[in-house]
Amino acid sequence: MFKELRDLLNEKNKTNSNLLLGVAIFAPIIVLMFIKFFIALFQIPLEFDSLVYHLPIVTEWLQTGSIMNIYYNAFAGPLAYYPSNFDLFYLWSMLPINNDFFINLINFPLFLLLTLTIYCISINFGISKKVSLFISAFPLYMPVFLQQAGTIFVDIYFILTFSLSIYFLQEVAKNTVEKSNSIMFGLALGLFMGTKYLGLPYGIIPLAIFILIHLFRKNKSYYALASGLFSVFLTGSFFYIRNWINSGNPIFPVEINLFGHTLFQGYPNISDKIYGSSLLSNISEISVIKEFASAFWTMTDLPGFLVLISVIISFIFISISLVKKRISKPDLIIATLLLVGSIGYLLFYIKSPYSYSDLIYNVRYAMPFLILGSLNIGFLVTKIKRLRVAFYIFSTFAFIHSLYYLFIIP
After folding, report:
1. What are phi and psi of 263, to 5 degrees?
2. Are 49 and 103 in contact (CB under 8 A)?
């Protein structure tokens, strides 16, 4: 996976300039991370999610000695039925000393892995090394990402496993016969889908592309395809199977209906509450659009604005390319996938439960859109060289602007 990083460091002529650029881009974030690390080291978990169900779930496992047991109380309701892959890390961090002392620190190494993964994805897309450095820093300069450092929110792990699945999907596209890439893709996607219920709809796009790659490439390997699908099941299915055993519904507490018939019974009245809590269900009002714009700006700042603008530019770029045929077919496919993926995950976000009822808090559901949108920016800038100077200027300004917010409200 880190061949791309070795290539960056081994490049004789540009190594110094690239390293200096990397230091300039990431140094402010590293300073913020150190501050957050020492705060987290001496602070108990305080977030609502951690107190309501993450820590109680892990405590239940510790007390009973089984992850089959489901924590339940009147305040949390059926939240402990949610997929809990990342909660296993909390459990493992608490087992040696039966204490949550290290639990706030788990997210810090995940930020490093996320940054490296985005850089590698960028290189695989043919994005230049300099632009890739900027793109891999984009999420770190968005408050919605960085504010999770020193907390026990699961979203950084969620988006890391999503990004890893994209990287290994690229490797599968390069070599469909090599089964190790398919297995790694499946393991990453399974971890992603087993961390949140949102992983089920969000995982449809990479899973569908994975299957299509194997079915329509000349060099087919059904063994590699089967290995990848089994790997998804291996790391992503446990909590759904546990729910099925305990409640008769794999995605309890959500009720599942088909053609007016109830297939799986859910928690009383929760389905109505869920379906009415999304942005899509409420966005017909101008006031809601204003609320959304304000919340999105607060949690993503200028980098998020650039991501939104890139969707429009990408649509224009692809339309012109189809007419004038100025780019190669592989590049056109990549541009189209990035555009469709960005729009798809934006739609998933506004359709997500609680994306409106907890508006600013749940901008985190837009993380896959923000990652793909950032990659989309990098690809556009690489292919449209006239945009590069503007990209460097606006990105630098966006980072500086975001830093003000991140230091004021760390």
Report:
1. -85, -45
2. no
Residue whose C-alpha is closest to residue 157's, from 118, 111, 190, 116: 111
Please name every residue paired with 77 in a beta bridge, in sequence order, or none if there are none.
Answer: 73
Integer Cα distance of 273 and 260 in angstroms: 18
What is the C-alpha separation between 218 and 216, in angstroms, rounded?
7
- The tens digit of pLDDT for each residue in 288-301 reads 899 999 999 999 99
**Beta bridge pairs of residue 262:** 257
Q: Rank 61-75, 104-118, 247-261 by mean pLDDT and report only the highest.
A: 104-118
Which residues, in sequence order, are bridge partners of residue 257?
262
Q: What is the pTM of this model?
A: 0.92
Of 285, 120, 149, nearest to 293 (Cα)? 285
Please tell me the distance from the alpha carbon of residue 274 to that of residue 246, in angstroms, as a whole number. Answer: 22
Please give the structure tokens belonging to residue 17: 């300039």
Residue type, 345: Y
Q: Helices 204-216 and 155-174 sit at what angle, rounded to 10 degrees?
A: 10
Distance between CA atoms of 66 and 58, rounded to whole angstroms?
Answer: 10
Buried b (16+ CB within 10 A) or exposed e, 366-381: bbbbbbbbbbbbbbbb
Looking up tokens 């699961």 gives 154
- Look-up of token digits 């919605």: 144
Q: What pLDDT digit, counting tens, does each position of 321-331 carry? A: 888 877 888 88
* Interval 156-196: pLDDT, tens: 999 999 999 999 999 999 886 778 999 999 999 999 999 99
**What 3-state DSSP class applies to 23?**
helix
**323-332 LR contacts (CB < 8 Å, sep 24+):** 327/383, 331/126, 331/383
Q: What's the N-to-C CA distance of the chain in angstroms?
A: 32
